[in-house]
Specification:
Blueprint: H1 6-13, H2 17-25, H3 32-45, H4 51-57, E1 63-68, H5 74-86, E2 93-98, H6 103-111, E3 116-120, H7 126-134, E4 139-142, E5 154-158, H8 161-174, E6 180-183, H9 196-204, E7 209-211, H10 217-231, E8 235-238, H11 241-253, E9 263-267, E10 281-284, H12 287-301, E11 309-313, E12 317-319
Parallel strand pairs: 1-2, 1-3, 3-4, 4-5, 5-11, 6-7, 6-8, 8-9, 9-10
Antiparallel strand pairs: 10-12
Helix pairs in contact: 1-2, 1-3, 2-3, 5-12, 8-9, 10-11
Length: 324
């Protein structure tokens, strides 16, 4: 069953969502007739304010939820660690959860008394994100994909993924690489045209070569070897550092040398990059600034404001090592 939102109440009562918020929160004067229509719509549609809406009016929970794709990822672990450093001594708790990909997961999120939600999942569907925003939970999106403009007030952090991919591919082209492959994360799903890393790659490469829709490491290595035998590519941009290392391993099985024959660049600049042979070039994403921006945006979203979409723009850095 679809949850009733403040937008539904506004439509039924013939008023704006702002008026609905004023009536439900009881924090601004509203014309008696409009207030009567809003309360009647609430009763008719069975609207139930989310716990977070009640919490923001009074006592807060000091609890933030971070939704990610990979619970074991070093990348997300660093962001949460940076957030905890900034919240040290303030009594806050941060929980990490993977997107379950079904409406019941979003309902459970709404039933908890979270002070805010950060969405760092590229697989979370747009309807679920819209539900979070419409619930009045301060919601911040990490712009992994090119999102549409959602209805309501929320924050977006552009982490520089598209620019990072452009920098990496351009660096390979600068040293003479002409046939560069994009390798997506391990997943049964194919890379989306809205993915910012992929968009950056396509902006520089005229004839894209892509490996995606591969769920396991073994299957990925087979795909890399098969494509090399067919195309003899000389560059790889991998969506993550771990995928880059799987590709290097597959090339070594063919006797292909990195970087003599093929240049390889990953994403995330994880610790493993410095301890591989060859050491791995990677696009560094500023997790420290992501953490800071997310907390600042959530704080700003707790206050009334005219700006619907709050934005934070960050840049990446290409860390050059032996594989480039």
């Amino acid at each position: 069953m679809k949850s009733v939102t403040r937008k539904d109440i506004a439509r039924e009562a013939g008023v704006s969502e702002t008026i609905v918020s004023y009536v439900i929160n009881d924090n601004r004067y509203v014309d008696a007739e409009k207030k009567k229509r809003v309360l009647a719509a609430v009763e008719k549609l069975g609207y139930r304010p989310s716990p977070i809406a009640r919490a923001l009016k009074g006592k807060t929970s000091n609890h933030v939820l971070f939704i990610a794709d990979d619970m074991m990822s070093e990348y997300f672990g660093i962001i949460i660690g940076e957030m905890e450093k900034r919240l040290s001594g303030k009594g806050y708790m941060i929980s990490l959860s993977a997107d379950k990909g079904d409406p019941s997961f979003v309902k459970k999120v709404l039933d908890w008394n979270f002070d805010g939600v950060i969405v760092g999942s590229r697989t979370m569907d747009q309807r679920s994100i819209q539900t979070l925003i419409s619930s009045s939970i301060p919601t911040v999106l990490l712009a992994i994909n090119e999102y549409p403009v959602f209805e309501g007030r929320y924050g977006v952090i552009y982490t520089g993924l598209k620019g990072g991919a452009i920098d990496a591919v351009s660096a390979m082209k600068k040293i003479g690489r002409t046939k560069i492959v994009y390798i997506d994360s391990l997943s049964e799903k194919y890379v989306l045209p809205t993915d910012y890393r992929y968009q950056g790659y396509c902006q520089v490469v005229q004839e894209p070569l892509v490996i995606s829709g591969v769920p396991t490491q073994e299957a990925l290595e087979i795909k890399v070897r098969d494509l090399y035998r067919k195309e003899h590519f000389d560059g790889i941009l991998a969506r993550t550092d771990s995928v880059a290392l799987y590709a290097i391993r597959a090339l070594k099985d063919l006797g292909v040398k990195v970087p003599d024959d093929v240049s390889v660049v990953g994403f995330n600049n994880s610790k493993m990059c410095e301890y591989t042979s060859p050491t791995l070039s990677s696009v560094r994403i500023r997790q420290d600034l992501i953490a800071e921006s997310a907390l600042n945006l959530m704080l700003e979203l707790r206050n009334e404001g005219d700006v619907q979409v709050l934005r934070s723009e960050l840049k990446t850095e290409l860390i050059k090592r032996e594989s480039l």
